[in-house]
Prior knowledge:
Largest sheet: 5 strands, parallel
Strand content: 25-35%
Shape: globular
Helix content: 10-25%
CATH architecture of the largest domain: 3-Layer(bba) Sandwich
CATH superfamily of the largest domain: FAD/NAD(P)-binding domain
CATH class of the largest domain: Alpha Beta
Family: Belongs to the class-III pyridine nucleotide-disulfide oxidoreductase family.
Radius of gyration: 23 Å
Structural class: alpha/beta
CATH topology of the largest domain: FAD/NAD(P)-binding domain
Domain Pyridine nucleotide-disulphide oxidoreductase dimerisation: 332-434
Keywords: FAD, Flavoprotein, Oxidation, Oxidoreductase, Redox-active center
Organism: Apilactobacillus apisilvae
Strand order of the largest sheet: 3-2-1-7-18
Cofactor: FAD
Distance between the termini: 60 Å
Amino acid sequence: MKVIVLGSSHGGYEAVRQILLDKPDTEIQWYEKGDFISFLSCGMQLYLEGVVKHVNDVSYAKPDQMHKEGVDVFVQQEINSIDPANHSVHVLNHNDGSERDEHYDKLIISPGANPATLGVKGEDLQNIYKMRGRDWAIKLKEKTVDHNVKNVAVIGSGYIGIEAAEVFAKAGMHVSIVEHNERLLGAYLDKEFTDTLTNVMKDHNVDFYGNQGVTEYRGEDGKVNTVVTAKGNEIPADLVIEAAGIRPNTEWLNDVIDLDDHGFIKNNEYMQTSEPDIYAIGDATLVPFAPTGEKAVIALATNARREGRTAAMNALGQEHKMVPVSGSSALSVFDYKFASTGIKEGTASRFDVKTQSTTVTDTFRPAFVPDDAGNAKVLFKLTYNPDTHEILGGQVMSKQDATQNMNTISLAIQAHMKVEDLAYADFFFQPGFDRPWNIMNVAAQQALKDLK
């Protein structure tokens, strides 16, 4: 059997790994349009801040390593069209300009998504960057030490925007975040959390301009120097980083497989598209959302990886359904570490779900443990259905790392656990690590009182 895999980030990588695990004698062709396989944009902040020293290390695989495992890796070779009827793809080799057709028995595509463009006046000025992919990582690294960059404007305050803001604030620049929504990180955290983080940003020379978009970029000598917002703010900017969302890279698939109204690829629980021998994974697809059972846009590496494994197993003849996910994620903002999963109060309206929430504050370890010995306040919020008591989501934040609690809440969501189940669930206790009652127990016990 010959399997062609398009795309080398999380989804494509995992598809290749699963095929090697289950049927290593499969003929695998792995295609990457760029000049580097398996670059992980989620690791970009670590590279920009110097934690990871070389940009090429932000990767899970190297071509020579994969060749040794029997994978034919094609770098700078683009699959630019698919002929399902003949089970073939057309390949454009950017190394020498040649073109060819390749036959497949099964095709797994992970076309990914492109950073959204704002389409505003002045977007063609120099020093307007994105924060996605290896090429942009190298350019951004240069800007962190550019003495001409004193003011940085970040457009968008999702995870990518927050990471960009922190990188350049730590590099000594003044940073301004412009966000269409009222709160930064509003898709990930509720107000109790984002109010604190907005103040933390301010303390680190990062200003937040919420509830306004960008109307224009102005510049001089072809280079950007000002961002103009819908409220008339004129923000100085020697560098602009656009992090205002993504768009699925699927226009080239319009007449090949079925897409939805937003350009996302339609696939079933086995990752099959409208063409049974073509499987689609990654940011260009929707994933089953555990709290609702419906599909949703959740562009996370964890989801792409699960989709990649699922597609590979099914391509090899197994029957394996995609596991519903909770949309779990975590990030740090200077000293604070936070995580969230499932439905939040701020996002409940998107899913037409009835919710109630309980918020508690406690210490990371028993109160007798001093702060300088690893104790800190923990803010925890549990969201649930007030009628059924089923757990729908959670959020946690602390200067200590309490983020792993969200993995437990994610599992509780997937298992359809109720508040009663979590209130007295068994977790270990040792004063050097945790509390007698885990913060999740504390929140669930309070939730039971609130429900009464």
